[in-house]
Design a protein that fits this description.
alpha+beta; 4-stranded antiparallel β-sheet; 4 helices; 37% strand
Length: 280
């Protein structure tokens, strides 16, 4: 952008880039981000704090919550803006290296120790993709549960690569690195299958993709005593997945105690899956 660009021109150019991205966000984030940048007509006030006040009234939240929502929204918009469009008009990947075309997960909660079978088909969006960065979060509900340890998660690779690295990325997230047998050229697909075993510290299972996912099929098999409620979580914040105030469509298990959910076009950083209330 030229150094002598006028303020109005700068705002118009910024709006041209940011507005379409912000409109892909959930309602509260979209309103907060558009208000912060004065891109929403009713919120076009001269001072930032006035725009924060406006969003707080509009969303029935306090100013501090709105500022946090603005920060979260900007972070998501930045991911999308930095990625750029993928060839063929598909969804962008945050680092431009690969995305998931199909993710199929079977979660067995009727086992002595819950098991997750993950079947994934990835597509290389860059040349020479040799390693995949994966992760699993074991949400801690309280300090009484104790810290999550790397050994709390068992991982088995059935096919598709070699697990070469695993380490704690945060207090409850285990990062994994899967090295492929040979680097993938741009546009090639690759299938892999993994099994995870771990005790669930909170009654929910969600996919929070680092890279875009075109389709996510989730099958969950519950124990003989079914949950009192099962809720579909679609494009929510990861922290909200365990918040009973974050509602979604209620789903019922079939005669085998199973549910099957499908999600399309998953955006990085948001959570998709289910939450259940233990049987009363």
């Amino acid at each position: 952008m030229p150094d002598n660009a006028e303020n109005v021109e700068i705002r118009d150019r910024l709006a041209h880039v940011l507005e379409p991205l912000a409109k892909t966000l959930p309602d509260d984030l979209r309103i907060a981000v558009l208000a912060a940048f004065a891109m929403h007509e009713p919120a076009r006030k001269p001072f930032y704090q006035e725009r924060v006040h406006w969003a707080a009234r509009e969303l029935d939240r306090d100013d501090r919550t709105i500022r946090r929502r603005i920060d979260e929204g900007i972070e998501h918009v930045a991911h999308l803006a930095l990625a750029g469009p993928r060839e063929g008009g598909g969804r962008p990947a945050p680092d431009g290296s690969w995305h998931t075309e199909l993710l199929r997960v079977s979660l067995a909660l009727d086992q002595e120790r819950p098991e997750v079978f993950e079947f994934r088909r990835i597509v290389a969006d860059a040349d020479e993709v040799a390693e995949l960065d994966l992760a699993l979060t074991l949400t801690t509900t309280s300090s009484a549960a104790g810290p999550v340890r790397e050994s709390d998660l068992d991982v088995d690779v059935f096919h598709g690569g070699t697990l070469v690295r695993r380490a704690m990325e945060s207090s409850d997230r285990v990062g994994l690195a899967l090295r492929l047998a040979k680097p993938l050229p741009r546009g090639d697909t690759h299938d892999l299958a993994l099994r995870f075993r771990a005790e669930f510290r909170h009654p929910h299972y969600v996919c929070v993709p680092r890279h875009p996912v075109d389709r996510f099929d989730l099958h969950v098999r519950f124990p003989a005593a079914p949950p009192s409620e099962i809720v579909r979580l679609d494009r929510v914040f990861q922290d909200d997945a365990r918040d009973l105030g974050a509602r979604g469509d209620v789903v019922a298990p079939d005669g085998s105690g199973e549910v099957h959910l499908r999600f399309d076009r998953l955006a990085p950083g948001f959570a998709y899956g289910i939450r259940w209330s233990p049987a009363g």
